[in-house]
Write a structure and sequence with these properties.
- The chain is α/β, with parallel strands linked by helices.
- It has one domain: Metal-dependent hydrolases (TIM Barrel), CATH 3.20.20.140.
- Helices cover 37% and strands 13% of the residues.
- Helix 3 runs parallel beside helix 4 and helix 5 runs parallel beside helix 6.
Length: 275
């Protein structure tokens, strides 16, 4: 089964979705399962993981409602306030939803570079482990030290790094991103999504070769066992179509064995998220 491990749905709200600036006007509309389904069909993708884009429990319930109605939405990565005193009670509430795989916080928007090392957040991660939920790590490059610190405190927890950790592909910088990736990848419980690449590049002028050094390092460090394809649709539309993003990864992985390609395009996501 082929799985897109990372995409989003929303009903556009200009107040809530203020992160969508005028330069991102293509995103200022609704994006729902009926919009994604044709893209998946053409790309030969059987299912997807819907990932939160808004930090509210309402968002989590919205995605779960869509997953209940559309079988190709195989799993949900939602949001819960991991720093809340009642986080255990909220996780118990959500634990009854079979399609809820894990949670994510938009750490890249937090001004405190050590946000993930705050005691309330660490406590929340510990509770995720008790309830069997995964955690998606969404950071910007300068937040890698905190992410490495988080992982070192919970070395057995299943984490997945979203969007390669957002390397500065547009400026073709490689360090210190590469060293941070090498450090993170030493933990066998850490996975990485091959997602969000085109929006870290020059939106109008990227080429496939721009991504090769970054992909080369990911395969050297994580290997085919811990990498998974994600489209980051519809955000990817800022820089490329769904098919362009899919072909970018498909073409790079042509040199792999059929089994390793199957891992990248589905098996790893199924194992990580327990589909």
């Amino acid at each position: 089964m082929k799985i897109d491990s990372h995409q989003h749905f929303w009903r556009y709200d200009p107040v809530r979705d203020s992160w969508i600036k005028d330069s991102m006007a293509v995103l200022k509309r609704d994006f729902l399962p009926q919009d994604l389904a044709p893209e998946l069909k053409v790309g030969g993708i059987d299912g997807c993981i819907a990932v939160q884009a808004d930090q509210s429990e309402k968002e989590t319930l919205f995605l779960l409602e869509l997953a209940a109605k559309h079988k190709f939405v195989r799993g949900v990565v939602g949001w819960v306030d991991l720093c809340a005193p009642d986080v255990a009670e909220r996780l118990e509430f959500f634990s009854v939803y079979d399609q809820l795989c894990g949670f994510r916080h938009i750490v890249q928007a937090e001004p405190d570079v050590r946000f993930m090392l705050r005691e309330p957040f660490l406590r929340g991660i510990a509770y995720l482990g008790e309830f069997g939920f995964t955690y998606d790590v969404l950071i910007s490059a300068h937040q890698f030290p905190a992410a490495i610190g988080l992982v070192s405190k919970y070395p057995d927890h299943p984490f997945v790094l979203d969007h390669l950790g957002k390397p500065p592909i547009k400026t073709k910088e490689f360090q210190p991103w590469a060293q941070h990736i090498r450090t993170l990848a030493t933990n066998p419980h850490i996975y990485c999504k091959i997602s969000g690449m085109v929006t870290e590049a020059d939106w109008k002028n990227w080429r496939a070769d721009d991504f090769k050094p970054y992909l080369d390092l990911l395969f050297e460090t994580f290997g085919a066992e811990r990498l998974m394809f994600g489209s980051d649709w519809p955000v990817c539309l800022l820089a490329g179509s769904y098919r362009q993003v899919l072909d970018l990864v498909a073409n790079y992985t042509q040199k792999l064995t059929p089994l390793d390609r199957d891992k990248i395009f589905g098996l790893n996501a199924m194992r990580f998220y327990g589909l």
